[in-house]
Amino acid sequence: MKELNQRSACPVSTSLDVLGDKWTLLILRDMVFAGKSTYGQFLQSAEKIATNILADRLSVLESQGILTKAVAVDKKSKFTYSLTEKGVETIPIIVALILWGSKHYITDIDPGLLNELQAGKDSAIEKYQRLAREKSLASLLHDA
Amino acid sequence: MKELNQRSACPVSTSLDVLGDKWTLLILRDMVFAGKSTYGQFLQSAEKIATNILADRLSVLESQGILTKAVAVDKKSKFTYSLTEKGVETIPIIVALILWGSKHYITDIDPGLLNELQAGKDSAIEKYQRLAREKSLASLLHDA
DNA sequence: TTAAAATACTTGCAAAATGCAAGTAAAAAA
DNA sequence: TTTTTTACTTGCATTTTGCAAGTATTTTAA
Fold first, then answer.
1. What is the CATH number of the domain that holds A80?
2. Which nucleotide C1' is nearest B5 CA?
3. A-chain residues within 8 Å CB-CB of B105?
4. In chain B, how many domains are there?
5. Which intervals hold domain HTH hxlR-type (chains A, B) (predicted)?
6. What is the model's pLDDT at position A73?
7. pLDDT digit string (tens) for A101-124?
8. For chain B: N or C, fewer Cβ within 10 A?
9. Which residues touch strand D (CB under 7 A)?
10. Angle at A24 between CA A73 and CA A14, to 5 degrees
């Protein structure tokens, strides 16, 4: 349980106190856009996060109520991380980063996704939020 | 001139390579929402950035073409930083952070701004982008 | 004309965060 | 019963950050 130290009462600053580093939003990206949900899956991303950093970020995200951790349905040695509603609501941030990055740098973004985001950003955000909620709900139902 | 080291070709990752730390977006916030444009003004924000970090971030932002540096109109010992179009286009990211932060944490956000953003996010973003462009254009005209 | 203040940094060093490689522990598979 | 899978933890080197002090140029004040 790590307590959040807010540098100021500014909402931008506070958001950055939680999400403002080079790794946290990549974990959320992997959950939303790559369907990942386990420690091992997060380790396999192209950016090669270190194991101790991943463990630390997952624990911060959990203690901030952005994701929840549960034993996987199939294996007791595996954990499944799911987005909370607070986590689902970071999707607009991730989408803004996708649009800015793909506009100003050379990236390998999926043209279909880019098109979808450019055509109707708000409805695309709503779609990915809906999908993320469905996924989280599904993992909750499995537990019960 | 610091070269950007992209960890991967993912647009989220690349955006975070540039903007993903606890200070960079606060400088841009100060330019967009507090009308700040000088080193001394950036130092006075509530979060208390260290002088060496500020100097470093300004030089990165300049070398990434997000802002430009020019001698101030009134004083030769002062510099004025202005947003480029690439910088203006970070405003959707900042707005997404404002909305997420103010929704999930206790902050002192201006209720008028919050209302404006919640009422019509896209048009509010357009408004602040237009204002930022006007401000940058004005400082360019002063130089000539 | 000269001294003090303003402005924008730079430098040195301690502290914290990150990155890397190896090790541990429980559960699952062979 | 041994090996593999999965999720970490630990120790240590490197990098980044933070703090305090110092420098350089321009502007203001005496």
1. 1.10.10.10
2. D15
3. 4, 6, 11, 14-15
4. 1
5. 10-109
6. 87
7. 999 999 999 999 999 999 999 999
8. C
9. A 38-41, 51-52, 55, 58, 69, 72, 75, 77-79; B 21-23, 48-53, 56, 75-77
10. 120
